[in-house]
Structure formats: structure tokens, C-alpha cells
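Deliverable D5.2: sample structural annotation.
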Amino acid sequence: MPTSLSIRAKIVGLFVVVAILGGASFGVRAKPTQAATGGIDINRWCQVISQGTERAVLISNNVYGWRCQYTWYGLKLYSIDLNAACRYEYNRSNATAHFYNYSNPYSWYCLY
């Protein structure tokens, strides 16, 4: 005579199989937990906004340390709109810039 534990295990196992097969047959998929992501080419963004006459430089070792350096009429530094850089990089009007680690200037990424 089977014990109640073995019967319970068989029932649970049957439910797991049904759930797996049922999900596969109906095409059920998990929803993504976040939007698509990608990196930012900050140097390219500086060149885009200046038509090739600027480059990205790091003036402090954190995520807000990036500047575009313009050298046409002397050395000038300009702040960077990283949200605009994301929109350009991925050609998406809803792209926004985020970072993983404030102390790592290379940790910027885009969500879109």
C-alpha cells in the first residue's frame, strides 16, 4: 500500500508536468523584468554634436565626470546630455541614460 507521502509526491509531480506542458502548448512566456539595455558611445556622441571636432574626456572619476572637449577656438569643455546620447545611439525617443555604479564612469547604459 502506497504511503500518503508517495501519493502526494506523485500528485505534485503530475501538476508540475501539466504546468510545464500546458505553458509550452499555449505559448505562455514570462514577461521581461526590465526594458532592453545597451551601452553608450560617449566619444561618438561628442563627435556627432560637434560634427567631428570634439571628443569625450573624463575630468573626475565618477559617472558625472564626462565632458565633450572642443578645441576649435581654444580648449573648452561642455557637459553631455546622456539621455540625448541614448536616444541617438538607439534611435528611440524613449531611451534614457542610467548607471550601475556612481564611482565607475564607464557604467552608463541606456534603457529603451
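Annotation notes: The two ends are 59 Å apart (CA to CA). Helices lie at 4-25, 42-50, 82-90.
The annotation will be released with the project's public dataset once the embargo ends.
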